[in-house]
Amino acid sequence: MADTMTILFGGIVAILLVASAVGFVLARRSPSETVANLNARIKAWWVMIAVFAVAFFAGKEVTIALFALTSFYCLREFLSITPTRAEDHRAVAVAFYIFIPLQYWLIWDEWQSLFSILIPVWAFLVLPVLAVLKGETEDFMARTARIQWALMLTVFCISHAPALLILDIPGFEGRNFLLLFFLIAVVQLSDVLQYVCGKLWGRHKVAPRVSPAKTWEGLGGGVLAAMAGAGLWWITPFSPWQAALMAFAIVLAGFFGGLVLSAVKRSLGAKDWGTMIEGHGGALDRMDSVSFAAPVFFHLTNYFFAL
Amino acid sequence: MIGPRIIGQLVIAIARFLVGGHARWQGCAPEPAQRIYFANHSSHLDTIILWAALPPELRAATHPVAALDYWGKGRLRRHIALRVLNAVLVDRAARHDPLGPMKAALDMGDSLILFPEGTRGSAAMPMPFKGGLYHLARQYPQAELVPVWLTNLARAYPKGAILPAPIVCTATFGMPLERIEGEDKPAFLARARAAVCALGE
């Protein structure tokens, strides 16, 4: 697998070098908001690929720890702009200090059955119990639901990305890191192609009140990303057409994940998840599509390809 | 023995990781003027958050006013309060001149961080302010009175909690309060409280 990874990293570094050069020239010749956005993405990808390289060479533990840290930041961001009350403190603290470490420990321990139900079943039952003991009934249902949603999206869903490492796929042993790579590559490519196609040809908005940036034409760019994903079939356990379908599922899930989280964000009265810290975009703004795409990809792969 | 500076950096690092605690300078800039920062109070973290929100050069000459019965308890807490935060410890039960230690700091030309409610509240809006701020404002007319609004701290670290929950908190610094000639104590305190509340909206 090390050879494959070397080729992949080499390829991506080459692509990013070209992208950075083009971005640099565009920024000098015709600076605009779109160009600035693309350059910010390119910069983020350099960081991402560096993190990926570290995770790959340092092994499973580091990969899991990095995703746990991502969940931590996303959950912190989510709850910071979500109106909970002081009475929810115990439930919130347990979500952070117990459920994040436990969920990721279960991946490390390869305890897949408990991993799949820890948050949908155990957190779902335990957290409202902690809150109810404080005796505050005001808004109880909504408060409980918010905390559960936060935990589902930012911890449960995102943890399905590193969980790809523990799938047992016959004939693919020791190469699971490539599945994670496939997922993130398709999601990122889809995000940027949707953005570019939306900017160039976007006319028909999918849900104008939720997100003015999401257009059907943009989704067309996502289809291009799915085709590019099909081109990566050789790093996966899939045949080319299976890889295409998988990539398409990832694109679709990611697209709707972005849309749903945009609606959640707006219902909380915020424009960016990161509004709490001036000048920083939110971690959830980058992870929204992953949070929907990861469980879909995990379960499709698990159902059709794993033991 | 670890020096107070290292402990200070550690305290700030942990606070940033868990609860952010970034500053928003809305009505004034972080300048080295003599100031009395006054803020709403809902958590023991308030003192640390407001202190950490100041730039390092201001921190050195700014003293949080902290309750002796909490911050004076235990060796570590006392060490952090006195050596790291440069706090002025006030005995809330004292009968004679509770403002004494605060005046001593102001006499040196330093700034104060004050929580005029006197104790932590649990409602969304701060409780009525106690009189100390009024007396200090009158006796130190050169000190700027800067209202500060702290968000989310009641949720991040409410009364009775053991660990703070990681919820991002911010400190918003407002415009210095004007002094009105001949204003009486209740009117001044109500105006000061309103200035803090206004930053919360």
How would you portray this structure in words?
The complex is a heterodimer of chains A (307) and B (201). By secondary structure, chain A is an all-alpha fold. Chain A has helices at residues 2-29, 33-58, 60-80, 89-108, 112-132, 140-163, 177-201, 216-230, 240-267, 283-305. The radius of gyration of chain A is 20 Å and the shape is globular. The two termini of chain A are 21 Å apart. With 201 residues, chain B is α/β, with parallel strands linked by helices. Chain B has helices at residues 4-19, 45-53, 56-59, 68-71, 75-84, 100-107, 132-139, 153-156, 185-200, and strands at 20-25, 35-39, 62-67, 88-90, 111-114, 144-150, 169-173. In chain B, helix 1 packs across helix 5. The longest helix of chain B has 16 residues, at 4-19. The radius of gyration of chain B is 16 Å and the shape is globular. The mean pLDDT of chain B is 90. Classes of the chains: A mainly alpha (307), B alpha/beta (201). Chain A binds chain B through residues 72, 75-77, 79-80, 84-86, 88-90, 92-93, 96-97, 276-278, and chain B through 20, 22, 24, 122, 152, 154-159, 161-168, 170.
Structural class by secondary-structure content of chain B: alpha/beta
Secondary structure: helix percent of chain A:
over 70%
Order of helices and strands of chain A: HHHHHHHHHH
Approximately what portion of the residues of chain A adopt beta-strand conformation? Answer: under 5%
Q: Tell me the helix content of chain B.
A: 25-40%
Please specify the SSE layout and strand pairing:
The complex is a heterodimer of chains A (about 300) and B (about 200).
Chain A: H1 2-29, H2 33-58, H3 60-80, H4 89-108, H5 112-132, H6 140-163, H7 177-201, H8 216-230, H9 240-267, H10 283-305
Chain B: H1 4-19, E1 20-25, E2 35-39, H2 45-53, H3 56-59, E3 62-67, H4 68-71, H5 75-84, E4 88-90, H6 100-107, E5 111-114, H7 132-139, E6 144-150, H8 153-156, E7 169-173, H9 185-200
Parallel strand pairs in B: 1-7, 2-5, 2-6, 3-4, 3-5
Antiparallel strand pairs in B: 6-7
Helix pairs in contact in B: 1-5
